[in-house]
Amino acid sequence: MDFLRPASLAEALELKAANPDAVPIAGGTDVMVELNFDKRRPAALLDLGRVPELATWRAENGRVRLGATVPYTRIVDELGDVLPGLAMAARTVGSPQIRNRAGVGGNLGSASPAGDAHPPLLATGADVEVASTRGTRTVPIGEFFLGPKRSALAADELVTAVLVPVAAGPQQFAKVGTRNAMVIAVCSFGLALDTTRRTVGTGIGSAGPVPLRAAAAEDFAAEVLPWDEPAANTLTDDTAKEFGELVAAAARPIDDVRGSAAYRRHALAVLARRTLRWAWQDVSGR
Ligand SMILES: Cc1cc2nc3c(=O)[nH]c(=O)nc-3n(C[C@H](O)[C@H](O)[C@H](O)COP(=O)(O)OP(=O)(O)OC[C@H]3O[C@@H](n4cnc5c(N)ncnc54)[C@H](O)[C@@H]3O)c2cc1C
Prior knowledge:
- The protein is α+β, with helices and mostly antiparallel strands.
- The chain has 2 domains: 109 residues, 2-Layer Sandwich (Uridine Diphospho-n-acetylenolpyruvylglucosamine Reductase, domain 3), CATH 3.30.465; 114 residues, Enolase-like, domain 1 (2-Layer Sandwich).
- Strand 4 and strand 5 form a beta hairpin.
- The longest helix is centred in the last third of the chain and has 24 residues.
- The radius of gyration is 19 Å and the shape is globular.
- The structure holds flavin-adenine dinucleotide (FAD).
- The site of flavin-adenine dinucleotide (FAD) has 30 residues, from strand 2, helix 2, helix 5, helix 6 and strand 10.
- Keywords: FAD, Flavoprotein, Oxidoreductase.
């Protein structure tokens, strides 16, 4: 197996163009599992660990441009104020060792419906920046996932960054698993309120062939939330319940070893209701 080690983004893109079958490796926390279990035996690995352009983040026009290999630990430590939903999700990924290595580029590259970065990226309306020697393009996150473990990336492209809007209101992330850490989500939910535009964003994980938005729930909450009276007690039980039911209805879960479809729908309704309450408490506390 060849091990390709570019030292710049330009070199990484040249190597990917010349070796479209080469498997990119960032933190390696998905790739190495597949190699160790002999599920994949690629002719070449393309190591992204020495590409400095992928390893930084910066603020840019009201968004954070988060490099593909910035590890979850840095997202937690450095971006909790501006990207609170993504930082909450990052905090739940694996263990400290996994969070030190892995990042959002690898989560997107794997395109698992259970990836924890996906719900907050959907809820905030992020864009994925991808590049090849042919140029750079941005893919709205809702168009990035094509099916379980399939994405809009072409064979010669790499994820270079995600462009995530700076939070304009409270955000939440919640996940159900069989234990509290080191666990693949049975289902997960991300929520982003924008108190300026008075909009609500959602993202559902691990309850469909791809991560999903709950558009009807977003429209309903944006319409009925009492934006002019943001006190904790102005969010009624009926509103929270209806929001939860609309989120559950948007899911397309299956029965599998981690949970039944019916359980996933039930749990999502609970997560959506709870996160809306927590977020609304934050609005009233501002
Ligand atoms: C013990 C353990 C616990 C875990 N817990 C969680 C969890 O709680 N939540 C969760 O979401 N995930 C979890 N994972 C899975 C994994 O850590 C995440 O998916 C992580 O985000 C992968 O990032 P990475 O940098 O390690 O990716 P890698 O393993 O390096 O790559 C993953 C995939 O993405 C591709 N890729 C990587 N970078 C790029 C790029 N820039 N452009 C294009 N393709 C790219 C690779 O070719 C590969 O197909 C866990 C894994 C382990 C081993």
